[in-house]
Amino acid sequence: MTTATLLPTQPADIRRIIRAGEYAGVTAGLANGHVQANLAVLPRELAFDFLLFCQRNPRPCPLLEVIEAGAVEPAFTAPGADIRTDVPAYRIYERGELAGEVQSVADLWRDDLVSFLLGCSFSFEAAMSDAGIPLRHQEAGSNVPMYITNIATQPAGIFSGPMVVSMRPIPQEQIVRSVQVTSRFPDTHGAPIHIGNPDAIGIRDIDAPEFGDAVEIRPGETPVFWACGVTPQAVALNCKPPLMITHAPGKMFITDRRDADYAVI
Amino acid sequence: MTTATLLPTQPADIRRIIRAGEYAGVTAGLANGHVQANLAVLPRELAFDFLLFCQRNPRPCPLLEVIEAGAVEPAFTAPGADIRTDVPAYRIYERGELAGEVQSVADLWRDDLVSFLLGCSFSFEAAMSDAGIPLRHQEAGSNVPMYITNIATQPAGIFSGPMVVSMRPIPQEQIVRSVQVTSRFPDTHGAPIHIGNPDAIGIRDIDAPEFGDAVEIRPGETPVFWACGVTPQAVALNCKPPLMITHAPGKMFITDRRDADYAVI
User: Fold this and answer.
1) What is the CATH number of the domain that holds A149?
2) Best residue in A42, A51, A76, A257 to probe B by mutation, most B CBs within 10 Å?
3) pTM of the predicted protein model
4) Which of A129, B99, B115, B238 is the 20 to 30 A CA-CA neighbour of A191?
């Protein structure tokens, strides 16, 4: 099994190794400067409602690409790739329950499956790092803390539920800069959803995130919250679709597109 | 019949007058500071493909809201409004052919119709005016010139075709500013598609626009092109859907949302 440090730097080369089953690890730090994506695959009869859900909730669900039923190539974000094999690990959910984790879904692919690629926070975290804003969870080598809020998403068809947010402690003198820097990337969650008061968005215990790992908030730092790509998965699973396939946590689809391609200004 | 100068200034009040059949004119200049929208209504069986077409072509097709089949209220952008009656005039197309222009489509409404509201250029034109950038077509009291280009849109299902652009002559020293100002509004067409060379995007005669009116390009000015909301209508009609309803040219749906709500930064 290849380790992350031995991997090439270009997206297509990394995807080839993943496709061959030779790398099944996390993708943070791989193909630096390129956009990574969350994956959600649903049967066609749910596709209009899920697409509309994403349109209505662009902060938690920024759509990068939709691969129509009958196709498996992300023609816009990664021409030549195969969405059935090029993610390091997939999770299979049946009626909302985890049924397995696999390195390829080629065996169980069907012609009625529609694939949704959604932006993830790696892009704006790179921009924050470039701006000298510290990222506590990266320093700690842990996963970003994520919380279920009392902010309702805008429903579409059967899809509804609360927004999930990620939290990063920001030194007070860098909060304005963190808003500016992330605002440039609306396709990868964009500007913060909330600054400062966890209670105001229904977070009772900042030290007990629903997903990921708690991080220290130091004196002089303020918790800042961004919409999180876990939201669409949580919402979709909540409605218990007969079949849903996602990437495994932290093991994203690596596109050919550059972070800078998605900066609005 | 009420004239534009006698109309109130608030969107809901104007919509009430339009609904009562007392105003059927153009909406430019009405409810200043509020977002106006292009309308496209299609039967449900085409809705997924059209929604996906918009997702793939956000510059010409910036989706503000989708009203699902069975509903007629734009709950997000104009709560309380009725999409069947609150546009000054509608065009009815059957198999791609204009079949009539009416002030209400309440009579012919069906439960399987899905309504798409798309951003229009009025928002970014207001921002350009505020920045002191001249708008020739407004000075001339004419419609903005629009051209069919050789830029292909990204197809989705049955929908495909060339991008339509609008053109504004910009003094060379204000081109950078016009890029900056319009980039802030990706939901109302955003930054220019092309600067300077009509030929490069397949426009053979700048004095013969396919839609709207030609405008003078003065010495020291450069033609600058933006994606145009006529694109989705042209593309949809091109595929000859059994029924399609749109707003009549220049007679838009006035939302409650403010231009500033859509500025990304």
Assistant:
1) 3.30.2040.10
2) A51
3) 0.90
4) B115
